[in-house]
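Lecture 7 notes. Example A: sequence first, then its structure tokens.
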Amino acid sequence: MLDQIKGLHHVTSMAQNARTNNQFFTNALGLRRVKKTVNFDAPDVYHLYYGDETGAPGTVMTYFPFPKMAQGRPGTGEVGTTVFSVPQGSLGFWSDRFAALGVGGLKAEESFGEKRLNFSGPDGDGFALAEVKDDARQAWTHGGISEDHAIYGFHSVAMRLRDEGATAELLKFMGYEVAEERDGVKRLIKPSGNGAHLIDLETMPNIARALPGAGSVHHVAFAVENREKQLEVRKALMDTGYQVTPVIDRDYFWAIYFRTPGGVLFEVATNEPGFDRDEDTAHLGEALKLPQQHAHLRALLEQHLQPLEV
């Protein structure tokens, strides 16, 4: 069993419109845009990052907004719901706020003894807020939402699977433990995690496989402290039979990727060097930052990319 993984690092999804996406996360959710850069493989498409003040691992939602991308079709083999942690007693505020902003899919419920509010993103993304007692993380409050209500970071992700058995075994190998099982959902927890340390596995044997598109999660990333720990994880996964990519430099972290038995793409990302490697913390997410291999395209990209602010 691995002990290097500390919980979620980030979740990356796809969208249709960069400006709408930016507005939703910075205004409706009050998160901070911590980086404005481009897709390494498609530099004419943004890669936008939203999180807390510094973009700490376990807080960062990232997006590839592909213009005119077809809508994704929900199904198995994907992350169905990304859940954020909020203070206890705050869901009334969020329900009123979302209703006033016209946010769709609002549904209050209780899951594993926690109150939560489900809602949809601009592309039909599946989200929820869960009330958490004593979350030690510091929420970003400069997005217009007070400390009594602001998002701490991730709470969990829920994966829809036709059969959760092999994925559960993988997560246990990655250091997670089964915490509880209710109504066909198995909850796993990473002991001594980073606050974003829960994974829910939803078994849906009669549901068709998901068709990726706008509103779909592209991959979910798990956090390790540094490159040394990452290489230990990579070797252990490969020794177990997983096909793992070489280490890839993503400017703000190093990444490795592998496909899980249930079809979900996993990444293991380092906490280093962080989003302040090329911007002062006070100005994160303001300037367009380009990977070195795309720096020569700056003039073209600045003309092509949709302005994020109205």
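Example B, a different protein, same format:
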Amino acid sequence: MTAVLFDFSGTLCRVESTESWLRATLTATGMTMEEPQLLQAAAALEKAGALPGGAEPSTVPEELAGTWAGRDLDAASHRAAFTGLSLQVPLPEETLHDALYDRHMTPAAWTPYPDAAHVLGELRQRGIAVGVVSNIGWDLRPVFREHGLDAYVDAYVLSYEHGVRKPDPRLFAAACAELGVEPERTVMVGDSRVADGGAAVLGCRVHFVEHLPAHERPDALLAVLDLLPDAELPSV
């Protein structure tokens, strides 16, 4: 193998909880909610699927169906889809819905999995090319820079910049082309069998991890090193 492609959300990094997301946004905007109402709103936002990278929506309102289907194809659709879901939940001020969306794009909203830096660093030492392939509607590069992961990434291939989303093999093909590697010598690592599994169409090997909170998945990425020639499982 000469390259490893990684998904972002649920694979290398995990977004904060919906409650933390709401609390941080209230603090940043100087707004307050009584504790029972805050907890109720957080639960409703989670059920609505309003936090990108969080829980899937229990249902998508009919009026948002088209926007939701194209949410990862451009930045405007991504914001419209998720703020549309958020707007299903009453909040003290309507401006909070946009503020919530803005919050999720900040590095503070994301936590790298405990073994992410170690595995990415090991791949760099071994001369293995690394790409990030994500269905997303915003630029995640600042998240990687803030958390010290950017130095290990050779290419970012983001759906909204290419107008195509996983599992479409064209997104994985674009990543392989940018890295100058052959799909047959590439591993795709992700948490979605549907989206990330699309890489297999090109001939990539696919390895899955579970989409869990960061503290519940301390070392799942280490298995990636076992897929490489002469790999030794290091300690962290």
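Note on Example B: Residues 16-108 form one domain. The chain has two domains: 3-14+110-226, 16-108.
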